[in-house]
Design brief:
Elements: E1 3-10, H1 17-31, E2 34-41, H2 48-58, E3 62-66, H3 73-83, E4 88-91, H4 103-111, E5 116-120, H5 128-145, E6 157-160, H6 161-166, H7 177-183, E7 188-192, H8 207-226, H9 230-260, H10 274-303
Parallel strand pairs: 1-2, 1-4, 2-3, 5-7
Antiparallel strand pairs: 4-6, 5-6
Helix pairs in contact: 5-8, 9-10
């Protein structure tokens, strides 16, 4: 039987939790065979944990996890994924802006062969200073990662449990779950979802979220492109600057020889030329970048074997062979 695990990070949302649970029950009971809801209290300072505790006592399908302090949404989602028992996982916010009525449509896309379904708030009920920066950010993510989605930031996401088992999210990389899954070969799609206005509490995000998102985008782009071979990125940059520096120094060396040895040019001091300073700086920068690349390669070589660099969709094993040394996984 299919089981759906619904993970809900909570941060000062005591006014919306009971309504959210009622809405989830009204939809999920008819959409899936079994379901569970895991509320993760991410250091709330209101009565959110008391509400969660009351809900847990009322229904065995509810679980609660309470953090000692605020660790961020990525940490909350990671804790929820680890505690989930379902074959499918749904992430949604606790502020009632995500509509549980979207669950059946998202399930249908999963059943049609997709591994990740990302919500798209086609008609956003947010102020303009959040909407337009978000559009720019989504365009940048789509352009830099190759995964064209309209709303990478949408908190409503459904994916198979194996997706959560294979990707690692920390900091604020939760918004890049579709990108990280896509980089490992999972099939990602999106669906327009109903976005509702906030009814309780206050938004946890401000202008800093956009700036942090740009830095996280650089991190994700580097991870999916050079995570296993950092020298390919750092070494290329280092070689470029090192070559530029050596060309400059070589040109100045030829000038010095022509002036002081061959006496073919009027003698003039080279030490005061800006090109000398720029060439030395470029050479040092190039050498440092290549050194960092070598150190990064050593770190990957000695610590990067804890996770596979590939993703297995299924296995077909020859029953006449000994496979005792093969890690278990989906078989047919």
């Amino acid at each position: 039987m299919k089981m759906l695990s619904i993970i809900v990070p909570v941060m000062n949302e005591d006014g919306s939790l009971r309504q959210l649970w009622d809405e989830i029950v009204a939809v999920a009971e008819s959409a899936v065979d079994r379901f569970e809801v895991i509320f993760i209290d991410d250091g709330s300072t209101d009565t959110s944990w008391a509400v969660i505790s009351d809900l847990v006592s009322l229904d065995s399908r509810i679980s609660g996890i309470r953090f000692r302090r605020n660790f961020g949404k990525a940490a909350a989602l990671t804790a929820g994924i680890r505690a989930a028992d379902g074959e499918l996982i749904l992430m949604m916010d606790a502020d009632l802006q995500d509509d549980p009525a979207e669950i059946p449509a998202m399930l249908a896309l999963i059943d049609s062969g997709n591994d990740v379904v990302n919500g798209w708030k086609k008609r956003r009920l947010d102020p303009w200073h959040k909407v337009y920066p978000s559009r720019v950010f989504n365009w940048m993510v789509s352009s830099m990662t190759g995964l064209a989605l309209h709303d990478h930031n949408c908190g409503l996401k459904m994916f198979r449990a194996e997706v959560g088992a294979e990707i690692s999210i920390y900091g604020e990389l939760h918004r890049f779950i579709p990108v990280l899954a896509f980089a490992r070969g999972f099939k990602v799609t999106e669906i327009p979802v109903h976005h509702r206005s906030r009814q309780h509490g206050q938004s946890k995000y401000g202008v800093r979220r956009f700036l942090r998102g740009l830095l996280d985008l650089l991190t994700v782009t580097f991870l999916i492109s050079f995570g296993r071979s950092p020298q390919h990125a750092l070494g290329a940059v280092g070689l470029f600057f090192f070559a530029i520096g050596m060309l400059g120094l070589g040109y100045l060396s030829v000038l010095w020889i022509l002036m002081n040895v061959a006496k073919l040019m009027e003698v003039a001091p080279i030490g005061g030329r800006p090109l000398l300073a720029y060439s030395i700086a470029a050479t040092l920068l190039g050498g440092q970048a290549m050194s960092l690349g070598l150190l990064a390669e050593l770190i990957v070589a000695y610590t990067g074997n804890t996770a596979d660099s590939y993703s297995v969709s299924e296995r077909k094993l020859n029953q006449h062979q000994d496979h005792s040394d093969i890690k278990t996984g989906p078989t047919e």
